[in-house]
Design a protein that fits this description.
The chain is of the alpha+beta class and 407 residues long. The protein contains 4 helices and 24 strands. The chain folds into 3 domains: 94 residues, Beta Barrel (Thrombin, subunit H); 170 residues, no CATH class; 71 residues. InterPro entries: PA2928-like (IPR048161).
């Protein structure tokens, strides 16, 4: 338990909130003080251990990682691994709060990680040849995408992203499912693109089809009888002439009746085709509204220029950070198609600059580390590699063991 009170600790401080029993005070670190005598009531070391490391000492988060929520009656805290924890204001009971969307609840605006020069596919969204979507998204984002809901702007750095696979079809929202391939979550992540692939148009959703008016199948038009030749000399007698003329007139009356019925039938069929066209246009209007709803919910929209993700032996490659800390380590993980985490390598580069494809299974990454320029070669099949400090020789890359090293 801390031996010094917040009043005697150096630096400026802020009262985050208070309950009927405790004060929640932030000055360099979190202090929970008894309201009666301002004595420390909670050992912060234990709190930090149980939460996986709160970002109190990790710039640039500071107080932006803490919010006292009056409605919940306690303190919400953002840990370095991106999870949200709730500290009950009266009992000081601690629990994880997955129902809170960290990216939209904590509104701090820390600077983005220095990844200039590498066009990784954040937010990590690609359409597979079989029509399914592969997406890196938080659980909250995945559920919203299934419903076609565009979430408000968020602090992108605070997202705990999972690699999910599934369907996203605006025609059947109830059947949309984006299922995580694995339980592990990634921070500040993107799919590693294939540097050798050219950017090409990628459409993530199928657009509604244009409705055309269908021409109905019409019955053949009745043809009139051949005109009657009224020259009497053509007939052997007057009686024969009159009989032939009466027969012609009867046939013509039948044709006129048949033609009137045909015209009515054609008018009915054309009217039905017009009604069906209007119905289909109304259907298209509704579909376009659904399509626009889902397209607007997709990060970056429905259509984009992108390089295809780099797959090695059917495995996905995820470039991510270890934690939310400002200078957190860069990691590279391989995830199999069936959702197994094969390996994770720590890449000792703070500011990646260039990405090269040596061959189908090897990449070369250049950038800056703590002690100058570095060049990293990674065998993507074996999950091993070498880092070269420019001018100082090379050393093997270190593997990160999960779940102990899990972001």
């Amino acid at each position: 338990m801390p031996t010094t009170s917040a009043a005697t600790t150096g630096g400026s401080g802020e009262l985050l909130g208070q309950s009927s029993r405790y004060l929640f005070f932030l000055r360099n670190e979190l202090y929970v003080l008894d309201r009666r005598d301002a004595a420390p009531a909670l050992a912060f070391d234990e709190l930090e251990r149980r939460t996986g490391g709160l970002p109190l000492k990790s710039a640039p988060w500071g107080k932006d990682a803490y919010r006292y929520d009056e409605g919940r009656g306690g303190l919400l805290m953002l840990a370095l691994d991106g999870r949200v924890w709730f500290l009950d204001g009266d009992s000081l009971a601690l629990r994880e709060a997955p129902e809170v969307d960290a990216a939209r609840y904590f509104h701090g605006d820390p600077p983005p990680p220095a990844n200039a020069g590498i066009d990784w596919q954040a937010p990590g969204l690609t359409r597979l040849p079989d029509g399914r979507l592969l997406i890196l998204a938080s659980d909250h984002e995945a559920r919203a995408l299934e419903r076609g809901e565009a979430l408000p702007a968020a602090n992108q750095r605070a997202r705990r992203q999972r690699l999910s696979l599934g369907t996203l079809d605006w025609r059947s929202p109830a059947e949309n499912r984006l299922r995580p391939l694995l339980d592990a979550a990634f921070l500040q992540a993107g799919l590693l693109p294939d540097p050798a692939a050219a950017e090409e148009p990628q459409r993530l959703l199928e657009r509604p089809s244009e409705r055309q008016r269908q021409h109905p199948s019409l019955p053949p038009e009745p043809q009139p009888p051949e005109e009657f030749d009224e020259r009497v000399e053509r007939f052997p007698s007057t009686r024969a002439f009159l009989a032939a003329r009466d027969a012609y007139r009867q046939e013509r009356r039948r044709w006129i009746a048949a033609h009137d019925a045909w015209r009515e039938r054609v008018a009915d069929l054309e009217a039905a085709a017009d009604a069906e066209y209007r119905r289909r246009r109304d259907e298209q209007t509704r579909e376009e509204a659904l399509y626009r709803r889902y397209a607007s919910a997709l990060p970056g929209g429905d259509s984009r220029l992108a390089r295809r993700p780099w797959r090695v032996d059917g495995n996905w490659l995820v470039l991510h950070r270890r934690s939310l800390a400002e200078r957190s380590e860069l990691l590279l993980s391989s995830v199999s198609g069936d959702g197994s985490l094969l390996w994770t390598l720590e890449l000792p580069i703070e500011r990646p600059e260039r990405l090269f494809r040596l061959d189908a299974h090897n990449l070369l990454l250049s950038g800056r580390g703590e002690e100058g320029g570095r060049l990293v070669r990674v065998d993507l099949r074996r999950g091993s590699g070498i880092v070269h400090r420019l001018g100082r020789g090379g050393a093997p890359l270190q593997r990160v063991e999960w779940p102990e090293g899990q972001p």
